[in-house]
Amino acid sequence: MTKSELIAELAMANPHLRGQDAETIVATIFEEITYALARGERVELRGFGAFTVKHRDARTGRNPRTGAAVSVEEKTVPFFKAGKELRQRVNAGPAPRTAERKQA
């Protein structure tokens, strides 16, 4: 699912929202998650998962094409750990989309 598909699903599931309002909601959520991670904070969405940042030390890597040693600088990377409910739902198999569930 792309960001635009998420916005379309949100707008369709909530007819009282204009498309632009749905877009603002999705953008705001993503921005706040990004800003919290940039500050080194943990973001937990119950039933979905948790976003954290992990620190990776500097190391010596290898160029896969030539095999030459290359220096890889230290860095901080975002990390996502799926929550229990999300893992269970994914393992249960495909579920109908929100609009399809409402029609059934």
TrEMBL record:
Keyword set, alphabetical order: DNA recombination, DNA-binding, Transcription, Transcription regulation, Translation regulation
Signal peptide: none
UniProt keyword Repressor, yes or no: no
Domain of life: Bacteria
GO annotation terms (biological process): DNA recombination; regulation of DNA-templated transcription; regulation of translation
Spans traversing the lipid bilayer: none
Cell inner membrane as UniProt keyword: no
A single cellular component GO annotation: chromosome
GO molecular function: DNA binding; structural constituent of chromatin
Family: Belongs to the bacterial histone-like protein family.
Free-text function comment from the UniProt entry: This protein is one of the two subunits of integration host factor, a specific DNA-binding protein that functions in genetic recombination as well as in transcriptional and translational control.
PANTHER family attached to this UniProt entry: DNA-BINDING PROTEIN HU, INTEGRATION HOST FACTOR SUBUNIT BETA
Subunit structure: Heterodimer of an alpha and a beta chain.
Name of the protein in question: Integration host factor subunit beta
Organism: Rhodopila globiformis (Rhodopseudomonas globiformis)
